[in-house]
Fold this protein.
Amino acid sequence: LIEFKNINKTFGREPNLVHALKDVSFKIYPGEFVAILGPSGSGKTTLMNIVGLIDKPDDGGLYIDGLNMGDKPDKVYSKLRNQKIGFVFQKFNLISKYDALYNVALPLLHRGKSYKEAKEAAAITLDRVGLENRHHHKPNELSGGQQQRVAIARALVGESPLILADEPTGALDKKTGGEILDLFEDLNGQGKTIVMITHDLDIASKAKRIIRVDDGRIFED
Amino acid sequence: LIEFKNINKTFGREPNLVHALKDVSFKIYPGEFVAILGPSGSGKTTLMNIVGLIDKPDDGGLYIDGLNMGDKPDKVYSKLRNQKIGFVFQKFNLISKYDALYNVALPLLHRGKSYKEAKEAAAITLDRVGLENRHHHKPNELSGGQQQRVAIARALVGESPLILADEPTGALDKKTGGEILDLFEDLNGQGKTIVMITHDLDIASKAKRIIRVDDGRIFED
Ligand SMILES: Nc1ncnc2c1ncn2[C@@H]1O[C@H](COP(=O)(O)OP(=O)(O)OP(=O)(O)O)[C@@H](O)[C@H]1O
Ligand SMILES: Nc1ncnc2c1ncn2[C@@H]1O[C@H](COP(=O)(O)OP(=O)(O)OP(=O)(O)O)[C@@H](O)[C@H]1O
Ligand SMILES: [Mg+2]
Ligand SMILES: [Mg+2]
């Protein structure tokens, strides 16, 4: 499904050059449940953003379903992203002027679904993450963990085959975090591919494979 | 040091009225190390924002060092806040156009320290949270956990007697989170009062007292 071949990514320039990913190679197959662990600043989000087609490597090959993404125009990236990927961002990236329901409906509206259909699916997904009474709250009228759950709902509403989650339970108590993890396990059971960055070793132990990131390099047992 | 007497706080209005804090009463004494736990949405941040003098109760009494805050003008709140409180916010609240060093220097500049003095103290504090090589990175050039550590450094740079931390290790791996906790324990050993919201039971166990929040009410063992 996803292949990295000798991928490098740097930010900034001398003397502030940061080599965030160094010669990273791995494959993720359809239906896998992968946890990505590593210290703060080690390159996990940078790696995930390339998997999620919202950033590009400086060097090396990125293959999606065998397709070499390197020479494709931006609209191929955004089309694949909209149709195939649900992404829970580390900083949530909710739109502050819209309420929870509309934020979650947006990916479906972008795919051309009707307003009625998109809102119904958004309502169901918000309920599934425990936000039944918060549909019409805007992000700044929600607690940190509630905002995180809106971000999760938005990633799941489109029933995408690939779900990327950058620390999806960081703002949640143990019980609520466990419920979100159960949800991901159910989706994986339905055949969806899940790639999840987490700092929580209990959460990581639920995944079937662990990739560790340290100072821009990856390690697997 | 801090006393809540029958404090209530609501948001919104019917039919969307949220009763975020319900008849909350407790005291926190100088030098304590208190952990606040509870489910997502239970009212912890709302409580902390009142302790931190950035929000006010709708009902009930707030006393700081015996002073009834209820009838004081806003400039008494902001003066106390600037001089006495270091606050690590759940969403960090960094200023995106300034680099890490300037963000951390700001509380000292607000107190009238010289630019040179403020930057020196900021540099030392950033180093203490492991960000030696990131002084001139802006927030969007930092990882999630690095941004959190800038927020922590900013809360600590003024050596305030009261440190409030809303989920200060939420974006950190176990090791880095442990280092931050050691830092808080050192500061508590120096006599500073620490009030910390956390979802992590290991972190909570390091505190000397636990206050639980559930659906707007507080409970203590
Ligand atoms: N401006 C607002 N308008 C309406 N409701 C609000 C507003 N701010 C907070 N709330 C509600 O008040 C309740 C308490 O919020 P608070 O942020 O204190 O929770 P919390 O315990 O910090 O949660 P978390 O662990 O998720 O950060 C939540 O249910 C939230 O939806
Ligand atoms: N725009 C940028 N300019 C300069 N450096 C950057 C930029 N973005 C990220 N970095 C650096 O790249 C490194 C990797 O960042 P990344 O966000 O991938 O880390 P992470 O593993 O997700 O960390 P965390 O667990 O703290 O979220 C960090 O050291 C960070 O400072
Ligand atoms: Mg990250
Ligand atoms: Mg909160």
